Every structure is written in C-alpha cells, then in structure tokens.
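lol ok so funny story. i was supposed to be doing the assay writeup but got distracted and ended up predicting the structure for this chain instead. priorities right. anyway since i did it might as well share w the group, maybe its usefull for someone
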Amino acid sequence: MTVLSTSQATSQDRPASGSSPNGGPVTIVGLRREREVLTVALATGRHVVLEGPPGTGKSTLLHAIAREGGQRMVFVEGNAELTPARLIGSFDPSQVLAEGYRPDAFTDGPLLMAMRGDDSGAGGLLYLEEMNRIPEETLNVLITVLTEGEITVPRLGTVSAGPGFRLIAAMNPFDAIGTARVSQAIADRMCRVVLGYQDEPAERQITGAVSGVQGRANELAVGLTRATREHRDVRMGSSVRGAIDLAHVLTGLAGLRGEEPFGRETARDATYAALSGRIRIADGVDRTPESVLDELLERLWPPDADEPTDSSEDESGKADGPPPSGAPGQEQGQNPGRDRAQSGRNERTLGRAELGARHDGFDDVSPELGELDDAAFDAAMAEDPEAAAALLADLAVATDAALRAQARRLAGRVFIRLGRVGPAKARGTRRLGPRRGGDGDLDLDRTLDTWQPAHSARPGVDDMVTRDWTAHRRAICLLVDISGSMQGLAVALAAVSAAGVVLASENSGTRLEPGVLAFGSGVRTLQRQGVGRSPESLVAELVALRGHGTTDLAAALREASVQLSAAPAQERTVVLLSDCIHTAGDDPVTALGGIDRVHVLLPQPGEPDPEAVRASSALAARGGGLCQTVSRLGDVGPALTRILG
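and the output, tada:
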C-alpha cells in the first residue's frame, strides 16, 4: 500500500489522462460533468465509487480534486491479499509482549489513517483502487464506517472519522480475471460515477499533451488505439496509454532510422511494441494480437497509400466505451421419474442428401460414405468456425454409422479445445480462518491464548496462529435445453458450454464435479453432480441429442436443486443454457428453492428473439445471476469467464 499526501499526489504517475510532459500540474481534458458530480458528492459528504475501463482518468480526476481541496489522500491498492488487519491496522506484537495492549502499541492501517486525517483530526480521503479485487470479508469492515462514521477495534476502542473523511473507490467492471461482485451492502452506501472512453479529439489532445507528439503520428496512434476497442475478435482494447506509448515509440523509431516522415514498416513495428501486450483476444478466437493489429493498420493505412487515412472520417456507430455493463455413485440413466427424456425421439438421424443440403462444405469434409477428412474439416474450421461446428454437430447424428462415430470422436476433441476458458478463482468469495504456523497475518490474541510461556521464553514458529484465506467451495449444475429444433450451431454451442463448465471445475482450486442435465419435456442426467466423467464422452453424448416438444424448465431446476443439495459446498449455482421460454410445467421462478444463483447463457445463433431476451434476463435477475447472449462459438468462452470467474 502507498500513502499519498496532497503534496505527493502529483500527475507524474498518471500520464494517461493528460499530465504534461514535464510532470507539472495535471490539466484534465474533458470529464467536465464527471468532475462536477464528483466534487459535489464529496462536498456533501457522500462516498463514491468510480467505474470505468483502464485509462479513462479515474485516478487522475481524483488526484486533481484532492489537490484543489488541500486534502490528504491515503492510497490503497486493492488485491486478494488485503485482509481486514492490513486495512485497519494492528498491534505491534513485541510491544504487546513487553507492555500489554496499549494504544501506543497500535499501528494505524490506511483506513484509520484516513479517518483520523492530519494532526487536526479533520479526516482525509481513502482511495481504494481496484475495489472489486478486494475480498468481501475485508470490504465488510467498511459498512459501519460508511454508515456511522466510526469503527470499533478490539482492545483499542472506537475510532471516529473526522468530518472530512470520504471513501472513494475505483474499479474496472469489465475485467473478469481475479474480480468479484461488490456486495449490495457496500453499493447501497455509495454514489456511482461512470467514466467511459473520451471522444477522438479529446484523446488526441491527451496524447499530444503527455507525449508532445502532434500531427500524423498522433492521429495514427490514437486511431489505431481506438480501433482495438471495436474489433470483433478483441475482448478488451487498449486505453489511451497505448496511444501515448505508440506516439513515443513511433517518433523515436523514425528518428533512429532517419525517416521523415515515418514509413509504414516503422509504424507496424511501433504498433506491435506499444499495443500487442495491451489488447486481449476474445476467448475461443485462434489468432494473435499481431494479426489483429496488422488488420487494423491495413484499414487505416492501406499498403498502396503514401500515408495513413484520417480515422476521424469514419466515426459512425462508435461507442464511448465497452458496453455496460441423487446419491453419489448412482449410474447414469438410473433415476426413474427424472430421467424422462424420450430416448426414441433422440434417435432421428440425417442422411447424406439432407446433410449436403444443409451444409455447403459437407462434400469436402465427407467425400465418401463412412469417411471424414480431418484436414478438410480443419480448413473449414479456419475459414468459418460457426459453419464448421454446425456441420460437425449434425454429422454426429448422421445415418452413416461410421461417419457418425468419427464425428462424435472429433467433436470431443474440437469442442473440448474451444471450451478451455480458464476462469480465475472468485477471490471475493474466500474467507479468513485461523491456521497454526501459516503464512497469513499474525492473530496475536489466539497466539497468546495458546502459547505456553513455561516451555519457551518467546513464541516459536509452531506457536504462531495466523489468519489466512480459505477457499469458498461452489457446486455447479449445467442445464441444457434440448427442446424444439436442437440442431446445428445450437448443439455446438451447448457442447462447448458443457466442456467449458467441466474444464473450469478441473482448473479451480476446490474441484467439485459439476452436474450436467439435458431437458425438454423431461429431464435427463448426462453427468451426476459430484461424479466424474471424461469431458470427451460427455460431449459425444451431448452432440447426439436432438429434442422435440415442450419445455419444462421448472422440472429441470428442481432436479438441479436436488442434486446440488448433496454437494459439500457453500454456494450452489445453476448455469442454464436456454431461451427460458417455458411451455409446460410450473413457472420456473417457483423452482429456485435451494439454488443460490442462476446464470443464463442465451443461445441466439440468428437474430435476437426479444421474448427470449426478456425471459432470460428476468430469470437471471430473479436468480441473482447474469444473463449472457451467445451467438457464435467465440462468445461462449468470455460468457463462461464472466459468470464462473
């Protein structure tokens, strides 16, 4: 953690939002409305959270306001290792052993430093950066502070905040790695100010002010940087910091090479250096950052052009930022009354003539009866992943038995690879617990209570009791809707989703085998909760399913609740792949008992269905989860990362 007084909070460390090249006082570019709202909120005693992607000026804006108000600011970097003791403060163990618990033996943490403020006790600003990376147990310490303006510390007493104390938090809500949802108890006690990317003229002004670079280099740097935020294969584009670095590297490289003006190859080399590490390719997309940057450079500076085009001429439709956000061991199929999906209806097959009519590439992938050309399929997958995946899903129910068997084996490999989303652990769901000889913060009270002074003059390593993070276990059940016309790309999306959920459980620190259920008018167990099964065989069975008839969503949710109830977990989560339009059974809202959270993956291969969007969003909201639309294979990975990460 770092403590910044008003004299230390210079703009030199925050170049992305308009600090001058010589490190002088920052000049805020734009953000007039946000600045006014934040100033008034702080002046009226409100606590504020600033939301926005990286490089939108959150820290710069706050530093400028703190400087103008002459307030001390205490800076805390939010991460998963920030414990309550590190935020509040702690007693010095050596002083406690020598003199007992005395107020002067307590070392204030950043929270108490900000509450007390300077020597006058006026209070200061506590700035929590990356608030959504801080564990929930640590954030809960702030609830009483935000409400009552005081906190009671054991053996120290009650500490009251000075009149100038304010909490300002910042977070990037679009980053799913290592983050957790902020609880409603905290959100309800804070105002929220959202910052988005600024328009192109403002970003050119920021880039020029920080780098000192103007003209063609400035325009190209900003144009390429902004284009990374809109590319279909990029999950997160670069902030204006990338434009600043690109302007620096481009002009420096041109000077080194003696180019005036700079050439296209120099621009390409500088773009790789400045932007390739800043953009994040969407999960499931098999390409490199450099290939995306080549495509963008070709658009802004065609190979046959003498100089780059002005990107500001094509600004239509551009956004200001990212979008707003049974018994274990029971055999499969031995669940009378619940495994009611009609097996006979799942045996419909597709002949070669029908497969050829549905898919243009069928004859290339299967030129002869019983043959599946892997190389031809790989080529089709590279050219059009959605079309190739839809073909593979339909080949899995081909009338040709040899072709069908090969397709199911291939589906196991292909859809498993696409399902490797690698979500991070949800750090905010861990809890602190005592451990003897652990690596966490010293629990002084427990150490002194259990230490036997007669055996040693001072506590040894084995006598120390620490408080460390213990993982919060989550059980997951995936429900796959196979009612209606389940075919082609819809089957592929379901298979990739199932593979992603299973692989995510293998990658997590607290592995619990997920349940996988398929449902239509009845419910069929593909993988029972807590019982392992190879992902390849699961995917092979799933791609062979074809559904018809009605949709009893409530029955599927109740079966998921029954299976989740036996799981040794603190949170029971359902991931539902469905349009959530029930045509049979009870209202699904009545079947949410025993389920802590319901996330919805809404498959929409074609045009979005407004009714399905409304139904899915409503059910996810009632289940306390998220609704994510998946229309192509590349959407599945990011969606699973958001809901499982």
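The chain has a mean pLDDT of 79. The chain has 24 helices and 21 strands.
back to the writeup now i swear
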